[in-house]
Design brief:
By secondary structure, the chain is of the alpha/beta class. The protein has a single domain (2-182), classed as Rossmann fold (3-Layer(aba) Sandwich). It has eight helices and seven strands, in the order H-H-H-E-H-E-H-E-E-H-E-H-H-E-E. It has helices spanning 2-5, 9-15, 20-31, 48-55, 68-76, 116-121, 137-140, 143-155; strands at 39-42, 61-65, 83-85, 99-104, 125-136, 159-169, 174-182. A hairpin with a 4-residue loop joins strand 6 and strand 7 (174-182). Helix 3 packs parallel to helix 4. The longest helix is centred in the last third of the chain and has 13 residues, at 143-155. It is globular. The structure holds S-adenosylmethionine. S-adenosylmethionine is lined by residues 2, 21, 43-45, 48-49, 65-67, 70, 87-89, 105-107, 112-113.
Length: 183
């Protein structure tokens, strides 16, 4: 799907007032004070989320996605330090870096990355590092999905330091929760 969508993705999402990346970057700015911190934009897509992160003054931002075309589009924005291909639903994660924060805007959902992606990222977060992710109304209202997310948070002793409801795609009245979770 995303390998065909990459060309019109930015325009379509912008036209529908896609707010979640901005809200994630605001949360990042609020809780990560080191602008040189290592950040991973998980499921970075074409780089809309990375653009918002960079706009807050962070400049060590890597991105990953499982769509080569989305990554090519992200690369053309020249904002990422490294971009790499990775399927978040795979069982083996071999990231090269550890991160001060991992940001997943619009990525963890029943149709995209499964809850286990959250679990698999934990070892790549530095001590006291953050994971900031959104769950849109569809994901949040799927009680099985939500239950798995919260089980991972509990089982790995992660701490929810903020959880806020707000606009996701405001043109179609879809909202999302932004979780800020500390390792
Ligand atoms: C709604 S887009 C969000 C992209 C970007 N974070 C943004 O806010 O614009 C979802 C992204 O997740 C990626 N994605 C979906 N499932 C994935 C998976 N299993 N592994 C890696 N990336 C995935 C898609 O390719 C797409 O780029």
């Amino acid at each position: 799907m995303y390998n065909n969508w990459y060309l019109s993705y930015d325009e379509e999402l912008t036209n529908n007032n896609y707010i979640t990346p901005k809200r994630c970057s605001e949360a990042l700015e609020k809780y990560l004070f080191n602008k040189q911190g290592d950040i991973l934009d998980l499921g970075c897509g074409t780089g809309l989320s990375g653009k918002e992160i960079i706009s807050k003054g962070f400049n060590q931002v890597d991105g990953t996605d499982f769509s080569e075309k989305m990554l090519q589009e992200a690369d053309s924005k020249k904002i990422y330090r490294n971009l790499f291909l990775h399927d978040l639903n795979s069982d083996v994660y071999n990231f090269d870096n550890k991160y001060d924060a991992i940001v997943a805007a619009g990525v963890i959902s029943p149709n995209h990355a499964k809850p286990k992606a959250l679990k698999n990222c934990i070892e790549f977060i530095k001590p006291n590092g953050l994971i900031i992710f959104s769950l849109n109304d569809h994901a949040y209202n799927d009680l099985d999905f939500l239950g798995k997310i919260h089980s991972i948070i509990d089982d790995y002793n992660l701490k929810i330091i903020e959880k806020k409801y707000g606009d996701h795609l405001s043109k179609i009245s879809l909202k999302s929760w932004i979780y800020v979770v500390k390792k």
